[in-house]
Amino acid sequence: MPLGNDIVRNLNDSFSVSDREEAVNLLLAARIEDGSVAGPRLLRCALVASRGSVETLREYVKLRAFDFRDVIMAGEYESIAGELVRVRDLNQPFGPPNQRLERP
To answer: Containing domain of residue 21, as a range?
Structure first.
C-alpha cells in the first residue's frame, strides 16, 4: 500500500533528508498484531509520536505489532492537567484544519 500524499508531506517536513528513506521504509513495512498492513491512521499516529526521530519511529512501528492502541494514544492524545485528552483526529489527513481537535 503506497503512502498517502499527506503522510509523505508530513514525513518530509518532520525528518531530515538523511533519515527520510529509512522512515519511508519503516512505514511501508509497518504491520499490526494480526500481520495486516497498518492503515493511514496508525501511520499518522506513529509519525506524530516520533517527533522526527527515526529511532522513535522504529519503536512505534515495533509497538504497533503488539498493540496498536498504544500508538494511537501516543499520536492523538496529550496529558493536559494530569488527564489524557484527545487533541488530534488522525483518521483525517494531515492539514491545518484536521490536525488538532477543538476543545469545548
So the answer is: 5-75
